Prior knowledge:
The structure is a single chain. By secondary structure, this protein is α+β, with helices and mostly antiparallel strands. The protein has helices spanning about 1-15, 20-50, 75-80, 85-95, 130-135, 150-155, 160-170, 210-220, 235-250, 265-310, 310-320, 325-360, 370-395, 400-405; strands at about 60-65, 100-110, 110-115, 115-120, 125-130, 140-145, 155-160, 180, 185-190, 205-210, 225-230, 265. The protein folds into two domains: about 1-50 and about 270-405, no CATH class; about 80-260, no CATH class. Strands 1, 2, 3, 4, 5, 6, 7, 8, 9, 10, 11 and 12 form a twelve-stranded mixed β-sheet that branches. A hairpin with a 2-residue loop joins strand 8 (about 180) and strand 9. It is elongated and about 105 Å long.
Amino acid sequence: MLIAEIFRLAFSSLTSNKLRSSLTILGIAVGVFSVIGVTTFINAMRGQIESGLNVLGANSFQISKFPAISFSDWNRFRNRRDITYSIANRFKELMGDSAKVNMQLGRGGQTVIFRDRRTNPNVRLIGTDENYITAFNFDVVTGRNIGPDDVEYGRPVCLLGSDVTQKIFPDEEAIGKLIRINGQNYTIVGLLGPKGTSFGGNPDNLVVTPISRFLAVYGRSGRSLSMNVQALSQAELAATQEKATGMMRLVRGLHPEDLNDFEVFSNESLIEAFNKIADVVSAGALIISAIALLASGVGVMNIMLVSVTERTKEIGIRKSIGAKKKSILMQFLSEAVALSLIGGVAGVAFGVGGGNLAAYFMNIGVTFPWLWAGIGLAVCGGIGVTFGLYPAYKAASLDPIEALRYE
Protein backbone atom coordinates (compact mmCIF):
# COMPACT_ATOMS: atom_id res chain seq x y z
CA MET A 1 0.00 0.00 0.00
CA LEU A 2 2.93 2.35 0.68
CA ILE A 3 4.17 2.02 -2.93
CA ALA A 4 0.66 2.67 -4.25
CA GLU A 5 0.32 5.73 -2.06
CA ILE A 6 3.69 7.08 -3.25
CA PHE A 7 2.64 6.79 -6.90
CA ARG A 8 -0.77 8.29 -6.15
CA LEU A 9 0.86 11.33 -4.57
CA ALA A 10 3.30 11.63 -7.48
CA PHE A 11 0.55 11.69 -10.12
CA SER A 12 -1.58 13.99 -7.98
CA SER A 13 1.27 16.49 -7.94
CA LEU A 14 1.67 16.28 -11.72
CA THR A 15 -2.03 16.89 -12.38
CA SER A 16 -2.10 19.84 -10.00
CA ASN A 17 0.31 21.70 -12.32
CA LYS A 18 -1.15 20.74 -15.69
CA LEU A 19 0.40 23.47 -17.85
CA ARG A 20 3.90 23.03 -16.44
CA SER A 21 3.69 19.25 -16.71
CA SER A 22 2.28 19.45 -20.24
CA LEU A 23 5.10 21.69 -21.47
CA THR A 24 7.70 19.36 -19.98
CA ILE A 25 6.01 16.33 -21.57
CA LEU A 26 5.86 18.18 -24.91
CA GLY A 27 9.61 18.81 -24.86
CA ILE A 28 10.33 15.12 -24.36
CA ALA A 29 7.70 14.11 -26.93
CA VAL A 30 9.31 16.31 -29.60
CA GLY A 31 12.69 14.67 -29.04
CA VAL A 32 11.26 11.17 -29.32
CA PHE A 33 9.01 12.15 -32.23
CA SER A 34 11.96 13.27 -34.36
CA VAL A 35 13.71 9.90 -34.33
CA ILE A 36 10.61 7.65 -34.24
CA GLY A 37 8.94 9.52 -37.12
CA VAL A 38 12.03 9.30 -39.31
CA THR A 39 12.75 5.63 -38.54
CA THR A 40 9.09 4.70 -39.10
CA PHE A 41 9.09 6.33 -42.53
CA ILE A 42 12.50 4.90 -43.46
CA ASN A 43 11.47 1.38 -42.40
CA ALA A 44 8.35 1.67 -44.54
CA MET A 45 10.41 2.97 -47.47
CA ARG A 46 13.02 0.24 -47.01
CA GLY A 47 10.40 -2.51 -47.16
CA GLN A 48 8.70 -0.89 -50.15
CA ILE A 49 11.95 -0.56 -52.08
CA GLU A 50 13.02 -4.13 -51.42
CA SER A 51 9.64 -5.46 -52.52
CA GLY A 52 9.17 -2.87 -55.25
CA LEU A 53 12.37 -3.86 -57.02
CA ASN A 54 10.70 -7.18 -57.68
CA VAL A 55 9.01 -5.41 -60.58
CA LEU A 56 12.28 -6.03 -62.38
CA GLY A 57 13.10 -9.47 -63.67
CA ALA A 58 15.44 -11.72 -61.73
CA ASN A 59 19.19 -11.65 -62.41
CA SER A 60 18.97 -8.26 -64.09
CA PHE A 61 20.80 -4.94 -64.11
CA GLN A 62 20.24 -1.61 -65.83
CA ILE A 63 22.32 0.59 -68.12
CA SER A 64 21.50 4.27 -68.55
CA LYS A 65 22.98 7.70 -69.13
CA PHE A 66 22.19 8.84 -65.59
CA PRO A 67 22.81 7.07 -62.27
CA ALA A 68 19.77 5.83 -60.35
CA ILE A 69 20.74 7.75 -57.19
CA SER A 70 23.30 10.55 -57.02
CA PHE A 71 24.00 13.70 -55.04
CA SER A 72 26.83 14.81 -57.36
CA ASP A 73 26.81 17.53 -59.96
CA TRP A 74 24.11 16.47 -62.44
CA ASN A 75 25.63 18.65 -65.16
CA ARG A 76 28.42 16.09 -65.40
CA PHE A 77 25.90 13.37 -66.26
CA ARG A 78 23.75 15.65 -68.41
CA ASN A 79 26.70 16.41 -70.67
CA ARG A 80 27.23 12.73 -71.48
CA ARG A 81 26.27 11.48 -74.92
CA ASP A 82 22.79 10.01 -75.17
CA ILE A 83 22.29 6.26 -75.51
CA THR A 84 20.65 6.38 -78.92
CA TYR A 85 18.50 3.74 -80.59
CA SER A 86 21.32 2.74 -82.95
CA ILE A 87 23.74 2.34 -80.02
CA ALA A 88 21.20 0.29 -78.05
CA ASN A 89 20.46 -1.87 -81.09
CA ARG A 90 24.13 -2.52 -81.73
CA PHE A 91 24.65 -3.38 -78.06
CA LYS A 92 21.73 -5.82 -78.18
CA GLU A 93 23.22 -7.53 -81.23
CA LEU A 94 26.64 -7.88 -79.59
CA MET A 95 25.16 -9.41 -76.44
CA GLY A 96 23.44 -12.02 -78.61
CA ASP A 97 21.99 -15.02 -76.76
CA SER A 98 24.11 -14.46 -73.64
CA ALA A 99 21.41 -12.20 -72.11
CA LYS A 100 17.99 -10.71 -72.77
CA VAL A 101 18.36 -7.00 -73.51
CA ASN A 102 15.41 -4.65 -73.25
CA MET A 103 15.45 -1.01 -74.32
CA GLN A 104 12.81 1.52 -73.38
CA LEU A 105 11.74 5.15 -73.39
CA GLY A 106 8.75 6.63 -71.59
CA ARG A 107 6.40 9.56 -72.01
CA GLY A 108 3.92 10.40 -69.28
CA GLY A 109 0.75 12.49 -69.16
CA GLN A 110 -0.95 10.77 -72.12
CA THR A 111 -4.68 10.39 -72.72
CA VAL A 112 -5.98 7.18 -74.33
CA ILE A 113 -9.12 7.65 -76.45
CA PHE A 114 -11.53 5.04 -77.84
CA ARG A 115 -14.68 6.45 -79.44
CA ASP A 116 -16.34 8.56 -76.72
CA ARG A 117 -14.30 7.09 -73.87
CA ARG A 118 -11.03 8.47 -72.60
CA THR A 119 -8.68 8.04 -69.67
CA ASN A 120 -7.32 10.75 -67.42
CA PRO A 121 -4.21 12.45 -68.85
CA ASN A 122 -1.88 10.38 -66.67
CA VAL A 123 -1.19 7.29 -68.78
CA ARG A 124 2.44 6.45 -69.48
CA LEU A 125 3.34 5.50 -73.05
CA ILE A 126 6.32 3.14 -73.20
CA GLY A 127 8.37 2.64 -76.34
CA THR A 128 10.16 -0.70 -76.01
CA ASP A 129 10.83 -4.11 -77.55
CA GLU A 130 9.78 -7.76 -77.23
CA ASN A 131 11.73 -8.26 -73.98
CA TYR A 132 9.85 -5.63 -71.96
CA ILE A 133 7.35 -7.99 -70.34
CA THR A 134 10.15 -10.33 -69.24
CA ALA A 135 12.34 -7.49 -67.96
CA PHE A 136 9.53 -6.03 -65.83
CA ASN A 137 7.66 -9.22 -64.90
CA PHE A 138 4.47 -8.56 -66.85
CA ASP A 139 2.13 -11.25 -68.14
CA VAL A 140 0.19 -11.04 -71.39
CA VAL A 141 -3.22 -12.38 -70.31
CA THR A 142 -4.94 -11.92 -73.67
CA GLY A 143 -3.55 -11.64 -77.20
CA ARG A 144 0.18 -11.59 -77.92
CA ASN A 145 3.32 -9.73 -77.02
CA ILE A 146 5.08 -7.17 -79.22
CA GLY A 147 7.29 -9.14 -81.61
CA PRO A 148 10.71 -8.44 -83.17
CA ASP A 149 8.99 -7.76 -86.51
CA ASP A 150 6.78 -5.10 -84.88
CA VAL A 151 9.93 -3.36 -83.65
CA GLU A 152 11.80 -3.76 -86.95
CA TYR A 153 8.99 -2.30 -89.07
CA GLY A 154 7.70 0.22 -86.51
CA ARG A 155 4.16 -1.13 -86.57
CA PRO A 156 1.49 0.93 -84.79
CA VAL A 157 0.52 -1.83 -82.36
CA CYS A 158 0.30 -1.73 -78.58
CA LEU A 159 -0.28 -3.57 -75.33
CA LEU A 160 -2.63 -2.12 -72.70
CA GLY A 161 -2.04 -2.10 -68.96
CA SER A 162 -4.88 -3.50 -66.88
CA ASP A 163 -6.04 -0.11 -65.56
CA VAL A 164 -6.30 1.33 -69.07
CA THR A 165 -8.20 -1.76 -70.22
CA GLN A 166 -10.73 -1.44 -67.39
CA LYS A 167 -11.23 2.25 -68.12
CA ILE A 168 -11.61 2.05 -71.91
CA PHE A 169 -13.00 -1.48 -72.37
CA PRO A 170 -14.97 -2.25 -69.21
CA ASP A 171 -17.33 -4.75 -70.83
CA GLU A 172 -16.15 -5.51 -74.37
CA GLU A 173 -13.30 -7.20 -76.21
CA ALA A 174 -10.25 -4.95 -76.67
CA ILE A 175 -8.05 -7.04 -78.97
CA GLY A 176 -7.98 -5.67 -82.51
CA LYS A 177 -9.54 -2.31 -81.59
CA LEU A 178 -7.96 1.03 -82.52
CA ILE A 179 -7.14 3.57 -79.83
CA ARG A 180 -5.76 7.10 -80.20
CA ILE A 181 -2.91 8.63 -78.23
CA ASN A 182 -1.76 12.15 -79.01
CA GLY A 183 -3.37 12.01 -82.45
CA GLN A 184 -1.83 8.62 -83.36
CA ASN A 185 -3.73 5.35 -83.94
CA TYR A 186 -2.57 2.10 -82.34
CA THR A 187 -4.00 -1.38 -82.81
CA ILE A 188 -4.34 -3.38 -79.59
CA VAL A 189 -2.62 -6.76 -79.90
CA GLY A 190 -2.34 -7.77 -76.22
CA LEU A 191 -3.54 -7.04 -72.70
CA LEU A 192 -1.23 -7.07 -69.68
CA GLY A 193 -2.15 -8.60 -66.32
CA PRO A 194 -2.36 -6.40 -63.19
CA LYS A 195 0.69 -5.77 -60.99
CA GLY A 196 -0.47 -3.25 -58.37
CA THR A 197 1.25 -0.07 -57.18
CA SER A 198 5.01 0.19 -56.78
CA PHE A 199 7.08 3.11 -55.35
CA GLY A 200 3.93 5.18 -55.16
CA GLY A 201 3.37 4.73 -58.92
CA ASN A 202 1.00 2.58 -60.93
CA PRO A 203 2.65 0.21 -63.46
CA ASP A 204 -0.80 -0.87 -64.68
CA ASN A 205 -1.60 2.59 -66.06
CA LEU A 206 0.44 2.29 -69.26
CA VAL A 207 0.42 1.56 -72.96
CA VAL A 208 3.35 -0.32 -74.54
CA THR A 209 4.30 0.19 -78.19
CA PRO A 210 7.37 -0.69 -80.33
CA ILE A 211 10.24 1.68 -79.64
CA SER A 212 10.78 2.26 -83.35
CA ARG A 213 7.20 3.53 -83.61
CA PHE A 214 7.66 5.70 -80.52
CA LEU A 215 10.76 7.33 -82.01
CA ALA A 216 9.07 7.80 -85.39
CA VAL A 217 6.25 9.75 -83.72
CA TYR A 218 8.15 11.74 -81.11
CA GLY A 219 11.58 12.02 -82.74
CA ARG A 220 15.03 10.76 -81.80
CA SER A 221 16.76 14.02 -80.94
CA GLY A 222 17.58 14.57 -77.27
CA ARG A 223 16.39 11.12 -76.21
CA SER A 224 18.54 8.69 -74.23
CA LEU A 225 17.35 5.10 -73.87
CA SER A 226 17.53 2.98 -70.75
CA MET A 227 18.31 -0.71 -71.03
CA ASN A 228 17.58 -3.67 -68.80
CA VAL A 229 19.94 -6.64 -69.20
CA GLN A 230 18.82 -9.98 -67.81
CA ALA A 231 21.41 -12.73 -67.31
CA LEU A 232 20.41 -16.32 -68.05
CA SER A 233 20.99 -17.30 -64.40
CA GLN A 234 22.13 -15.88 -61.07
CA ALA A 235 25.47 -17.68 -61.46
CA GLU A 236 26.11 -15.87 -64.74
CA LEU A 237 25.04 -12.42 -63.50
CA ALA A 238 28.52 -11.10 -62.65
CA ALA A 239 30.04 -12.37 -65.92
CA THR A 240 27.11 -10.98 -67.91
CA GLN A 241 27.48 -7.58 -66.23
CA GLU A 242 31.20 -7.54 -67.02
CA LYS A 243 30.56 -8.49 -70.64
CA ALA A 244 27.78 -5.87 -70.93
CA THR A 245 30.11 -3.16 -69.65
CA GLY A 246 32.75 -4.16 -72.21
CA MET A 247 30.23 -4.27 -75.08
CA MET A 248 28.79 -0.90 -74.06
CA ARG A 249 32.26 0.66 -74.05
CA LEU A 250 32.83 -0.82 -77.51
CA VAL A 251 29.65 0.57 -79.07
CA ARG A 252 30.30 3.94 -77.40
CA GLY A 253 33.79 4.02 -78.96
CA LEU A 254 35.62 4.47 -75.66
CA HIS A 255 39.38 4.02 -75.42
CA PRO A 256 40.94 1.88 -72.64
CA GLU A 257 41.96 4.99 -70.69
CA ASP A 258 38.47 6.58 -70.92
CA LEU A 259 36.05 6.41 -68.01
CA ASN A 260 32.60 4.93 -68.57
CA ASP A 261 30.15 7.56 -69.86
CA PHE A 262 27.18 5.45 -68.77
CA GLU A 263 25.91 3.87 -65.55
CA VAL A 264 25.48 0.20 -64.70
CA PHE A 265 23.42 -0.60 -61.61
CA SER A 266 21.55 -3.62 -60.25
CA ASN A 267 18.70 -4.12 -57.80
CA GLU A 268 21.21 -4.91 -55.06
CA SER A 269 23.22 -1.75 -55.72
CA LEU A 270 20.03 0.36 -55.54
CA ILE A 271 19.09 -1.21 -52.21
CA GLU A 272 22.61 -0.69 -50.91
CA ALA A 273 22.62 2.97 -52.00
CA PHE A 274 19.25 3.57 -50.35
CA ASN A 275 20.40 1.90 -47.15
CA LYS A 276 23.43 4.20 -47.01
CA ILE A 277 21.21 7.25 -47.41
CA ALA A 278 18.75 5.89 -44.84
CA ASP A 279 21.57 5.31 -42.34
CA VAL A 280 22.79 8.90 -42.73
CA VAL A 281 19.27 10.29 -42.29
CA SER A 282 18.67 8.06 -39.25
CA ALA A 283 21.97 9.18 -37.71
CA GLY A 284 21.00 12.82 -38.24
CA ALA A 285 17.60 12.23 -36.65
CA LEU A 286 19.27 10.45 -33.75
CA ILE A 287 21.65 13.38 -33.12
CA ILE A 288 18.78 15.88 -33.26
CA SER A 289 16.73 13.68 -30.94
CA ALA A 290 19.64 13.32 -28.49
CA ILE A 291 20.07 17.10 -28.29
CA ALA A 292 16.33 17.61 -27.85
CA LEU A 293 16.13 14.93 -25.14
CA LEU A 294 19.13 16.39 -23.33
CA ALA A 295 17.43 19.78 -23.28
CA SER A 296 14.21 18.11 -22.13
CA GLY A 297 16.11 16.33 -19.35
CA VAL A 298 17.41 19.65 -18.11
CA GLY A 299 13.82 20.90 -18.23
CA VAL A 300 12.69 17.93 -16.12
CA MET A 301 15.36 18.68 -13.53
CA ASN A 302 14.39 22.36 -13.47
CA ILE A 303 10.69 21.57 -13.05
CA MET A 304 11.42 19.11 -10.26
CA LEU A 305 13.68 21.59 -8.42
CA VAL A 306 10.92 24.19 -8.64
CA SER A 307 8.46 21.59 -7.36
CA VAL A 308 10.72 20.75 -4.42
CA THR A 309 10.98 24.45 -3.52
CA GLU A 310 7.22 24.97 -3.77
CA ARG A 311 6.45 21.90 -1.65
CA THR A 312 9.11 22.36 1.02
CA LYS A 313 6.51 22.80 3.77
CA GLU A 314 4.58 19.72 2.55
CA ILE A 315 7.79 17.70 2.71
CA GLY A 316 8.46 18.96 6.25
CA ILE A 317 4.96 17.94 7.40
CA ARG A 318 5.28 14.49 5.86
CA LYS A 319 8.70 13.90 7.45
CA SER A 320 7.47 15.18 10.84
CA ILE A 321 4.67 12.58 10.92
CA GLY A 322 7.02 9.72 10.05
CA ALA A 323 7.58 9.68 6.30
CA LYS A 324 10.90 8.02 5.54
CA LYS A 325 13.63 9.55 3.43
CA LYS A 326 13.25 6.69 0.95
CA SER A 327 9.54 7.41 0.53
CA ILE A 328 10.16 11.08 -0.26
CA LEU A 329 12.91 10.10 -2.67
CA MET A 330 10.64 7.59 -4.42
CA GLN A 331 7.78 10.09 -4.68
CA PHE A 332 9.79 12.79 -6.45
CA LEU A 333 11.71 10.29 -8.57
CA SER A 334 8.38 8.75 -9.63
CA GLU A 335 7.16 12.18 -10.73
CA ALA A 336 10.26 12.73 -12.88
CA VAL A 337 10.05 9.25 -14.45
CA ALA A 338 6.31 9.64 -15.05
CA LEU A 339 6.85 12.96 -16.85
CA SER A 340 9.53 11.40 -19.04
CA LEU A 341 7.61 8.22 -19.85
CA ILE A 342 4.38 10.05 -20.67
CA GLY A 343 6.39 12.28 -23.00
CA GLY A 344 8.05 9.20 -24.48
CA VAL A 345 4.74 7.45 -25.12
CA ALA A 346 3.33 10.61 -26.73
CA GLY A 347 6.46 10.96 -28.88
CA VAL A 348 6.27 7.34 -30.02
CA ALA A 349 2.56 7.69 -30.83
CA PHE A 350 3.00 10.89 -32.83
CA GLY A 351 6.20 9.60 -34.46
CA VAL A 352 4.60 6.36 -35.64
CA GLY A 353 1.48 8.23 -36.73
CA GLY A 354 3.44 10.93 -38.58
CA GLY A 355 5.83 8.48 -40.26
CA ASN A 356 3.02 6.22 -41.42
CA LEU A 357 0.95 9.20 -42.57
CA ALA A 358 3.82 10.28 -44.83
CA ALA A 359 4.13 6.68 -46.03
CA TYR A 360 0.38 6.52 -46.70
CA PHE A 361 0.46 9.58 -48.95
CA MET A 362 3.26 7.93 -50.91
CA ASN A 363 1.28 4.66 -51.20
CA ILE A 364 3.75 2.84 -48.96
CA GLY A 365 2.71 0.17 -46.46
CA VAL A 366 2.52 1.10 -42.77
CA THR A 367 5.00 -0.23 -40.24
CA PHE A 368 5.81 -0.03 -36.53
CA PRO A 369 9.45 0.29 -35.40
CA TRP A 370 9.21 -1.89 -32.30
CA LEU A 371 12.94 -1.76 -31.59
CA TRP A 372 13.20 2.01 -31.80
CA ALA A 373 9.99 2.48 -29.82
CA GLY A 374 11.39 0.29 -27.05
CA ILE A 375 14.71 2.12 -27.13
CA GLY A 376 12.91 5.47 -27.04
CA LEU A 377 10.87 4.55 -23.97
CA ALA A 378 13.92 3.10 -22.22
CA VAL A 379 15.87 6.30 -22.89
CA CYS A 380 12.99 8.39 -21.58
CA GLY A 381 12.89 6.30 -18.41
CA GLY A 382 16.64 6.78 -18.05
CA ILE A 383 16.24 10.55 -18.50
CA GLY A 384 13.61 10.61 -15.77
CA VAL A 385 15.88 8.75 -13.36
CA THR A 386 19.06 10.67 -14.29
CA PHE A 387 17.63 14.17 -14.21
CA GLY A 388 15.12 13.49 -11.44
CA LEU A 389 17.54 11.91 -9.01
CA TYR A 390 19.14 15.12 -7.76
CA PRO A 391 15.84 16.98 -7.09
CA ALA A 392 14.43 13.83 -5.42
CA TYR A 393 17.55 13.49 -3.24
CA LYS A 394 17.35 17.18 -2.36
CA ALA A 395 13.71 16.77 -1.31
CA ALA A 396 14.48 13.63 0.72
CA SER A 397 17.41 15.35 2.48
CA LEU A 398 15.49 18.39 3.73
CA ASP A 399 15.59 18.97 7.46
CA PRO A 400 11.97 18.66 8.68
CA ILE A 401 12.28 21.54 11.16
CA GLU A 402 13.77 23.91 8.56
CA ALA A 403 11.18 22.71 6.05
CA LEU A 404 8.28 23.48 8.43
CA ARG A 405 9.61 27.01 8.90
CA TYR A 406 9.74 27.61 5.12
CA GLU A 407 7.33 30.23 3.82
